[in-house]
Amino acid sequence: MTSDEARRRLQKFGPNAMPDTSLHPLRMAIEKFWAPVPWMLEAAIVLELALGKYVEAAIIALLLVFNAALGLFQESRAQATLAALKSRLALNASVRRDGAWKTVSATELVPGDLVKLSLGGVVAADVKLTGGEILLDQSMLTGESVPVEAAAGVETYAGALVRRGEAEAEVIATGAHTKFGRTAELVQTAHVVSSQQKTVLRVVRNLAAFNGIVILILVAYAWSLKMPIAEIIPLVLTAVLASIPVALPATFTLASAIGARALAKLNVLPTRLSAVDEAATMTVLCADKTGTLTQNALAVASVRAMPDFDEAHVLTLAALASSDGGQDPVDEAIRAAARGKVVSAAPTLITFTPFDPATKTSEATATDATGGQLRIVKGAFAAVTGLAPPSAPAAAAAKELEDKGFRVLAVAAGPRSAMKLTGLIALSDPPRADSAALITELRNLGVRTVMVTGDAPATAAIVAKAVGLDGAVCPPGAIPDSVRPEQFAVYAGVLPEDKYKLVKAFQKGGHTIGMCGDGANDAPALRQAQMGIAVSTATDVAKSAAGMVLTQPGLSGIVAAVREGRLTFQRILSYTLNSITKKSFQAPFLVIGLMMTGHAILTPLLMVIIMITGDFLGMSLTADNVRPSSAPNAWCIGNLTIAGVIMGLGELVFCVSVLAFGAYRMKLGIEGLQTLAFVVIVFGNQATTYTNRERRHLWSSRPSIWLILSSVSDLLIAATLAIGGIAMVALPALTVIGVLAAAIVFAVALDLVKVPVFRRLGIA
């Protein structure tokens, strides 16, 4: 191809690279202000500015920015997926242009180019071989652990590794049009809404619907009292502020960040914070075979020696006919197995002929102990047995091993005119030592594991049995959309698109899916799964598409992730329940206070102080001492809302009782009642925090030091402001202490009601 033609095709087909579709940092930042909670805070800021309350508006704006900054900081480090996909393309390629071989950037390749593929190189685009013979490792795309021989007419894909030989090939697809590119596009389109996003949205929706009705009642009653508009607007603003779970998104992010830090110490690196608490809800783990449950390294699984030979002799002869120090995984496996075998009077190597794809054999010439010359041939069973007398037992043994999914090689040796079949060698990709224990442990935690692989069904079934995956193998063909995890234990012969579709099918059934893999072929499924896990040996593509990366060999990190995820889930659950409790009673409290006094019992400023002290100090629940559950968790927002409303009803009764005592017994004026309302809300919130944090009785576990310190700080701030008369009318210290004592009694009484309610609603 001429350079001019190459430039024309480059303009037509585009560069041999993946398009950059990563979000601009500015857009990422703006998105943090476009969600239900930010909308409510932004509306409150507008109302404050309309009322000329610039200090209060600034405080709410700071809360809004804090929420956005925390989320943006934690999530901006996980945006490397497309960059990793692009980096997998070879940087340079040898291409024939203008009648001469040139080295050009791989991005300049176009369909029709003639390229050279050499040992150790990465195939830069989808190509069709036109000459030469090479050994290709395509495991990163196909999932097959055994390299394949390729000669003229064979197509191979961008990202494949040349393990042996040299060949010329014609480029047939580049960039996004390659098989690798289509996998990349699947990663771009793969998306699942995290449980965090769903939970925040549903909690905010439920609270907005409930408090919206309450605020309408509040406005209607205030209007019936003929209150001036100038008083109604601050009243409405106070009710709106009382309804916003301001720190809920930040708490989800902070709790996940704390869990991520703990996992990093256990050699698990989360790349998406949502994956931490998704691990708590995972019900099914889809594990790739090659490189995940297995070592992704060929090993000798079995040796069948023929009469007059033994296993050690067969391996010694095979090792002589294997390259030493090359990149051929078959030869490496055989030489490794032969090192542990001792053979007396072993033959001495004279010459070695590397593997020839045409004959499918490699051979060696050696001398035996008597000085006689031997020819040793190792290779495909059909090729080698043609050099020796036929053997029915050998043919039967080869069929038996092949039916079990092994790759079978034959070894023959002897004088050129009288060679004998010495034995058969079965190769396999052995399971990891910890795979069986992992699957058993996950089963005990209530997580079902299924194998999903591109390898052959027979091979997959052997590995499944070895690691303790008992169950049926899915028949070949298209995977049905309605498939259920319990139907099959093994899905074999699947393409990247099939893995992606399988994950989506399981998700449609209501399951939270974990996908564990190591290759680019796993990337779309890793991205789609709620909890994508890349093992330590994974490609850059798999690691960047996953939500978690195991940084050390082995799979024990998955169990650690599940356990830490369940701790994180319990902390988020406590805060969410606490938020529903607070936000479901405060607006009704304003209505009842208005009915009792004919005035607003809280000002917007007092409500902002309650938000700061209560919501943000309450984030200490993210570091609380909790117990992980023994089964996968689930967000039951309906039951959680009912539980929170019941607890909020209890707090409403407590706060109204104290307010009534202040109004009718202590004869406090409206400003004194506003201070009393402020104090009772703060103290009541602390009481429900301790009842909500423990699913059993509140004294069943010790709270963390951070929770205790935040509670003391909240109480001291409220007491100091109330007694000192800062931003409100002062109350006697004895009155504040009396409210605190009443809150302690209230907490114990509410706890007695809570235990049967939580048990009935399944809050555990």
Description of the molecule:
The protein is α+β, with helices and mostly antiparallel strands. The strands form 3 sheets. Strands 1, 2, 3, 4, 5, 6 and 7 form a 7-stranded antiparallel sheet that branches. A 7-stranded mixed sheet has the order 8-20-19-18-9-16-17, with helices on both faces. Strand 16, helix 18 and strand 17 form a beta-alpha-beta unit. Helix 10 crosses helix 11 (274-281), helix 22 runs antiparallel to helix 25 and helix 24 (637-665) runs antiparallel to helix 27 (733-761). Residues 78-90 have low confidence and may be disordered.
**What portion of the residues fall into strands of 2 or more residues?**
15-25%
Count of DSSP E strands? 20
Could you tell me the radius of gyration in angstroms?
A: 34 Å
Q: Number of helical segments?
A: 27
What is the mean predicted local confidence, pLDDT?
Answer: 85
Task: Give a quick rundown of the structure.
With 764 residues, this protein is of the alpha+beta class. 51% of the residues lie in helices and 16% in strands.
Summary tags:
single chain; 764 residues; alpha+beta; seven-stranded antiparallel β-sheet; seven-stranded mixed β-sheet; 20 strands; 16% strand
